[in-house]
Design brief:
Elements: H1 19-31, E1 46-50, H2 62-67, H3 74-93, H4 95-100, E2 105-107, E3 114-119, E4 128-136, E5 141-148, E6 153-166, E7 169-183, E8 189-195, E9 198-202, E10 210-221, E11 226-232, E12 243-249, E13 256-263, E14 267-270, E15 276-279, H5 300-303, H6 305-313, H7 316-340, E16 349-352, H8 356-364, E17 374-377
Parallel strand pairs: 1-2
Antiparallel strand pairs: 3-4, 4-5, 5-6, 6-7, 7-8, 7-9, 8-10, 9-10, 10-11, 11-12, 12-13, 13-14, 14-15, 16-17
Length: about 400
């Protein structure tokens, strides 16, 4: 565990008036057995953003996503997929740290919660559309579909978390995967299986939590090219937080064809040539949505707007009251369904027990587990600026 947060300028997340509440929360974490996601966090440590919005982080650099479709060879396509993937990590795992002073706990989505957005066509890159649905509450599972129809590229996936406490850190095992599909000019398609890294939340005892990635994730192409990404924190490759080393290997080979390393929240380079590989120090592009007033009652930003406002204003009493109101309503909805012998119907996704693409591509690098379930998008939403 790192001794200090990676950003020395980050202030403490815990207001002075809340120190005792934070200490009590830490004690409850340390003594809790089971999945920590079921614990109720104090309002001052909550983020004003629901987990249902998180899939938008996949495409905050939409030009890198669309560029994958322009690759001229299988190797180049795998390099561009790796470049795009590494460039998503800062948004997914440190942007809230920068905005909010330190890492905050996202709002737990309710079953059926929705999030829609898009990134408009700029300079011929095509419009990229996003559909997200909370498909399970216990355990919490978020399914998403991202597509750029003009470029013939899409990403379908789901994510869940199992959280535990160990060695003074919160350990988050990310469950789920994503499948990136590229329609090729010759009429064929190439698929990429993307697995998710494990997270470690450090800095708890300083009152300034931050995320560090750990262990290994993979990007396996249906053409055989494999990217292996190792994540290390302080005291490893460079002695810096947020360090990674990625190797790209040819089909049927374990030898690295290309090696990249650096900091996933700043820059990285090609080890052999010294050429810049990723640079996420430049501004990202936020997802576009319709105004909150025009959203459906189940859309994240409308559903949680008064909770979010309370958190942003530092009015934790209001945030807690509004949050309890939503959660109690959901509990009652589940009781009503149970009494009626019905269950919640998903709006945009169908669940299947075993993903054949995961099973096929996972076999190429001996994925563990060898099979995983998935959620398949129904293609039943008309995208566009007027309906994000």
């Amino acid at each position: 565990m790192a001794d200090t947060p990676p950003n020395e300028n980050v202030g403490e997340a815990v207001p002075s008036a809340q120190k005792s509440s934070w200490a009590t929360f830490l004690k409850s974490i340390a003594s809790f057995s089971g999945d920590l996601s079921s614990l109720t966090a104090p309002p001052f440590i909550l983020s004003p953003i629901s987990l249902t919005e998180f899939p938008a982080y996949w495409c905050e650099r939409p030009e890198l996503f669309s560029a994958i479709a322009d690759a001229q060879s299988n190797e180049e396509r795998s390099i561009l997929v790796l470049k795009w993937f590494i460039s998503t990590l800062k948004g997914q795992y440190t942007s809230r740290n920068e905005k909010l002073g330190s890492e905050k706990k996202p709002l737990n989505p309710v079953l059926g919660e929705l999030f829609y957005g898009y990134w408009p066509d700029v300079n011929g890159r095509g419009q990229t559309n996003l559909v997200v649905e909370q498909v399970s509450h216990h355990p919490p599972i978020t399914a998403y579909y991202i597509e750029n129809p003009q470029k013939g590229i899409s990403l379908q996936g789901h994510s869940a978390q199992k959280t535990s406490f160990s060695g003074g850190s919160i350990i988050v095992k990310q469950i789920g995967h994503a499948i990136l599909t590229v329609n090729l000019p010759n009429g064929e398609k190439e698929e990429f299986l993307i697995t998710l890294p494990r997270l470690r939340i450090d800095g708890l005892w300083y009152g300034s939590p931050y995320i560090e990635l750990s262990e290994t994730s993979y990007i396996q192409s249906s053409t055989g090219w494999l990217s292996t990404i190792e994540y290390k924190g302080k005291g490893y490759f460079s002695g810096k937080s947020h360090t990674f080393k990625a190797t790209l290997s040819r089909p049927g080979s374990t030898q690295a064809s290309q090696t990249y390393e650096g900091l996933w929240h700043e820059t990285s380079k090609n080890v052999r040539t010294g050429e810049l590989f990723t640079d996420v120090t430049t501004p990202k592009e936020e997802v576009t949505t319709v105004p909150v007033e025009e959203m459906d009652e189940w859309e994240s930003r409308r559903l949680w707007r008064w909770v979010a406002k309370g958190i942003r204003d530092g009015d934790f009493e209001t945030a807690s009251r509004e949050k309890s109101k939503i959660e109690n309503e959901q509990r009652q909805r589940r009781r009503d369904e149970q009494a009626a012998g019905t269950s919640w119907a998903l709006k945009h996704f169908d669940h299947i027990d075993s993903d054949p693409i995961f099973e096929h591509l996972g076999r190429l690098f001996k994925a563990n587990p060898p099979t995983e379930d998935t959620y398949v998008y129904r293609h039943n939403r008309n995208p566009g600026p007027e309906k994000a």
